Amino acid sequence: MSNVLEIIQARHSERGPFDPARPVAREDLGAILEAARWAPTPLNMQNFEILLVDDKELLESIERFRSDASEAFLRESYAQLSFSEEELLAKKTGLLASMFPPAWTDPEAWHPDSDSRSQLAFVSTWMPQTPMLLLILHDAGKRAPGSEGDALGNIGLGCVVENMWLMSEFLGVGFQVLSAFSDPRVERQMRGLLGVPDRMKIDLACRLGYPIESTHNSVRVRRRVEAFCHHNSFGSKPPMFDEDEFLPGSEHELNRATRRVSSLGAELKMPQSKPKPYAELRNSPVQVHDVAAGEEKPA
Ligand SMILES: Cc1cc2nc3c(=O)[nH]c(=O)nc-3n(C[C@H](O)[C@H](O)[C@H](O)COP(=O)(O)O)c2cc1C
């Protein structure tokens, strides 16, 4: 339990440059894709495809693609930004403005004629030094049974991404989700470059690599449990949970948690145990029936 919580709290968005000389190791990538494979999906539809891109020329072409950061998108995003750590800690939702390119945080720059708007136009803004991109796709012609707008299918895709993200955190692989890849303009350019059929929708991209300098130190906030949890009727406060049991610290902000992940077990007042290396997990006695590999189901 302590290991799972430790990894969940430490999982974070790594927005800095990745080491261009260090491709994602085959065994790390294998473990990340294995995590995707076992993600829950509605009725076990497994409604996802993953396209790996690590060819240098392709990545360079993608960096030059232009996106449409619409004014509406920028305005809505702006509402989620805090301009100081104090503001973010008080709000407990959103992100620090300093994490984003200056043009994001300057309403003057959003006007289509503004010079600084060009800063927002290129996909390269979102992917400094990236040795690998994973594109998450799904067949837009299929949907989870009975799910209006395929909300359930989309939740399944979220589970796939979260599984990969947690495994990446566990392995020390930097991971950033990039939603700009579902922008129709970028999607069109990607289709042409990578031969993605029209029926497949590009949902988002995940940027993978080994961080040169981790962004672990930035403040990450979350609401307290009683702020989102209701008990028996909506609006009724749940019984108080002592959050200090899970995450001590006066502010409950998670930057400290990510920074101190190696010593977290002790701080959580739980027995400290090391996460098992992936190879050990794979060979552990918990067996799963591997249909894809044509295994016989155990009697
Ligand atoms: C569906 C989805 C889309 C996201 N899109 C982006 C994105 O385009 N760029 C980015 O840097 N982070 C993106 N994120 C990451 C969130 O901003 C991030 O998870 C959130 O701010 C919490 O920070 P943390 O991941 O460090 O805990 C996305 C996350 C999700 C789940």
List keywords for this structure.
single chain; 299 residues; alpha+beta; NADH Oxidase; 4-stranded antiparallel sheet; two-stranded parallel sheet; 6 strands; 33% helix; disordered C terminus; binds flavin mononucleotide
Could you characterize the architecture of this molecule?
The relative contact order is 0.19. This protein has a single domain, classed as NADH Oxidase, CATH 3.40.109.10. The protein has 299 residues and is of the alpha+beta class. The chain is built from twelve helices and six strands. Strands 1-4-6-5 form a four-stranded antiparallel sheet, with helices on one face. Flavin mononucleotide binds next to strand 5.
List the helices and strands and how they pair.
Blueprint: H1 2-10, H2 26-37, E1 49-53, H3 56-64, H4 71-78, E2 81-82, H5 85-91, E3 95-96, H6 118-121, E4 132-139, H7 151-171, E5 174-178, H8 184-194, E6 200-209, H9 225-228, H10 254-259, H11 264-267, H12 278-282
Parallel strand pairs: 2-3
Antiparallel strand pairs: 1-4, 4-6, 5-6
Helix pairs in contact: 2-7
This protein binds flavin mononucleotide.
